[in-house]
Design brief:
By secondary structure, the chain is α/β, with parallel strands linked by helices. It is about 45% helix and about 15% strand. Bound molecules: D-gluconic acid.
Length: about 450
């Protein structure tokens, strides 16, 4: 394929050969792409409310229209086919199924995902639904949201309905996406819905979200095909240190607890450690048996990886890094080795658990060129380097089973609005025209080569 780029594409040091049944795909989430917020009886979510609040999102942008995927899903699945995806991770909007979070089922909402799943399967793309990707029904939000234990029970009831409907066709389920973001960004620092600013609430909502994850895992197990795999998607961050000083090591440990152990310890090991209390200030309020539910066995863990955390006691180290490293439009350092490190960290924590990269990708300043195409060489190189680093983890014997790019399409980047473009497919937000970027074509080629190389 002619990518018409003037800059060289990164070539891995040795040819990459991934395992035979490796899952190749890409991801999205409901509120970021669907739009159609008033269509077919969808209820209001906390993100509709948050985005409608002055000053909360960039230019007041919301997911009200987004990329209108709800009405264009057939065209979009056809594009996924062109990209050669073997799997598509999407999320189900809880307020489409239960407009007020609980009570009456909205059949039209359920039917949408039923049609989507069939459309994917028709194109040989495995559906990987996520059950919670932040769009909590507003009514439950008003009743305390994830601070209220009832929300976990309602979530399990919603999961019950969805899994009964789709469980015969789904091979991989994801319960909740990035509980760290939903609790810390949503309840701790208020940059995401519902916009609260309390560490006590962050800790509590994180706990209830994990409880919801555990309850959901149990319902999914009961309602899915015996072969169905159940997992969770965690955004994990490898911590790197500039020096061995005590201060740096202590800080690094605190960051590790904050980003990683907060969710790894309860979900994998059924516990919170004393370190957690030291770093976060308090334990959540719990009931007997919570940690047993939270640590319900799962079949795989999803890692969403974007960047690392670099800790130093010297301001100069951080300034030097800022000067020398490459950054994405999100301001995140491009650090491919970190994906190897975080995969190996999780493998060490849970030696028998398969791992899937459920998100990896980058926002860059894409432009539509005079030829109508998007020559996003930076994204190609980002993906190539991260795939090489995933391959290294496999060579070090990590059980990596799949890799999903964030994202299939340019979409609504939450509080950052629409300027941050992560897609393999460019979307013109005025016309809704989709254009496969060079990175999309590169990824399609990459996947095809992997398939061809299989004996
Ligand atoms: C996430 C989210 C995505 C973001 C992506 C880029 O799980 O954080 O799943 O919704 O768009 O991570 O920030």
């Amino acid at each position: 394929m002619n990518l018409q780029t003037t800059q060289p594409v990164y070539e891995p040091k040795t040819p990459l050969q991934f395992p035979k049944d490796f899952i190749w795909g890409a991801a999205t989430s409901a509120y970021q792409i669907e739009g159609a917020i008033y269509q077919d009886g969808r209820g209001v979510s906390i993100w509709d409310e948050f985005a409608a609040t002055v000053g909360k999102t960039y230019r007041g942008e919301s997911g009200a229209i987004a990329i209108d995927h709800y009405n264009r899903y057939k065209e979009d699945v056809a594009l996924m086919k062109q990209l050669g995806l073997g799997a598509y991770r999407f999320s189900i909007a809880w307020p489409r199924i239960f407009p007020t979070g609980t009570g009456m089922i909205n059949q039209k909402g359920l039917d949408f995902y039923d049609r989507l799943v069939d459309e994917l399967l028709k194109h040989n793309i495995s559906p990987i639904p996520t059950l919670f990707h932040w769009d909590l029904p507003a009514q439950l939000g008003h009743a305390g949201g994830w601070l209220n234990r009832d929300t976990a029970n309602y979530f399990a009831d919603y999961v019950e309905v969805v899994s009964k409907k789709l469980g015969d066709r789904v091979s991989h389920w994801i319960t909740v996406n990035e509980p760290w973001c939903a609790s810390y960004l949503g309840y701790g620092v208020g940059v995401h819905a519902p916009g609260h600013t309390s560490t006590v609430e962050a800790v509590q909502s994180g706990h209830v979200l994990m409880l919801a994850h555990g309850m959901a895992a149990q319902r999914l197990r009961a309602n899915s095909a015996a072969s169905a795999k159940i997992g969770v998607a965690l955004n994990l961050v490898p911590i790197y240190t500039a020096d061995d000083s005590e201060a740096t090591q202590k800080k690094a440990h605190e960051r590790d607890v904050f980003f990683n152990s907060w969710f790894i310890d309860p979900i994998f090991h059924g516990k919170y450690t004393d370190d957690f209390k030291e770093v976060m200030g308090n334990f959540p309020q719990m009931q007997d048996g919570d940690l047993r539910i939270i640590s319900t066995p799962i079949d795989f863990v999803g890692i969403n990886y974007y960047s690392r955390e670099y800790v130093s006691s010297q301001e100069a180290d951080l300034t030097n890094l800022k000067r020398s490293a490459e950054y994405t439009e999100m301001g995140w350092e491009v650090f491919p080795d970190g994906i190897t490190a975080i995969i190996e960290r999780v493998h060490a924590e849970a030696p028998n658990l398969p791992i899937m990269i459920t998100e990896n990708g980058a926002a860059f300043d894409d432009v539509v060129d005079s030829d109508g195409l998007v020559h996003d060489i930076k994204r190609i190189n980002y993906l190539a380097k991260h795939l090489e680093a995933c391959h290294t983890a496999i060579q070090h014997s990590a059980p990596l089973i799949g890799y999903l790019v964030w994202s299939v399409f340019d979409n609504y980047e939450w509080a950052e609005g629409y300027v941050k473009r992560f897609g393999l497919v460019h979307v013109d937000l005025q016309t809704q025209k989709r254009t496969i970027k060079d990175s999309g074509r590169w990824f399609a080629d990459f996947i095809q080569n992997q398939r061809n190389a299989q004996p």
